Amino acid sequence: MTSPDEPVLVVGLGNPGPRYAANRHNIGFLVVDELAARVGGRFKAHKGGAEVLECRLADRRVALAKPRSFMNLSGGPVVATARFYKVAPENLIVVHDELDLPFPSVRLKLGGGENGHNGLRSISKSLSTRDYLRVRFGIGRPPGRMDPADFVLRDFSATERKELAISVDHCADAVEALVGKGLEAAQNLFHAR
């Protein structure tokens, strides 16, 4: 993260519409919805192809965003929104589901590969860089031989739903720490758990 005077864009990844609302793939939407609830704001349609809420988090100017495109096409709306708010890639935070982490782990990192995540792949391609911040919410691996693409488009299990509200709240705390304290300090706080 750069100077506290520069704006930050926090993007939650998901798929639009009620059919996908409770899917594992939509955890990014759930986390930015929690952040919006904390500041008492509402998302509004933005010309960049996302729903956006301008607010302050951890004493910084922040735009929370949910692309209105499907996950695999997230890059266009993310780049358009970043350009509108003049947000550099190092001030972009993407909140997404992560198959390689157990539910409900939260991990923060800068850059790296996409691990087969088509939303991240689209963003990296559109930005022409992988060097943006990620808040990874663990959803675990699919059971048995289930296709990961089917797994991420299923709702959380009954057992997971019992913990989901607390886990989303914890992930939103991690985003706020990342915005306010920077990557290393936020990792120290949230990776120890």
Q: What do these coordinates show?
A:
It is a single chain. The protein has 193 residues and is an alpha/beta fold. It has a single domain (8-190), classed as Peptidyl-tRNA hydrolase (Rossmann fold). 36% of the residues lie in helices and 22% in strands. Strands 2-3-4-1-5-7-6 form a seven-stranded mixed β-sheet. The chain is globular, with a radius of gyration of 15 Å. The mean pLDDT is 94. Belongs to the PTH family. TRNA binds at residues 20, 70, 72, 118. Its main location: cytoplasm.
Question: Can you summarize this structure?
Answer:
The record marks 15 as: Discriminates between blocked and unblocked aminoacyl-tRNA. The protein has helices at 27-39, 75-84, 118-127, 148-152, 158-181, 183-190, and strands at residues 8-12, 44-46, 50-57, 60-67, 92-98, 106-110, 133-138.
DSSP strand tally: 7
The level 1 CATH classification is Alpha Beta
**Gross geometry:** globular
CATH superfamily: Peptidyl-tRNA hydrolase
Per the CATH scheme, the topology name is Rossmann fold
SSE order and pairing:
Elements: E1 8-12, H1 27-39, E2 44-46, E3 50-57, E4 60-67, H2 75-84, E5 92-98, E6 106-110, H3 118-127, E7 133-138, H4 148-152, H5 158-181, H6 183-190
Parallel strand pairs: 1-4, 1-5, 5-7
Antiparallel strand pairs: 2-3, 3-4, 6-7
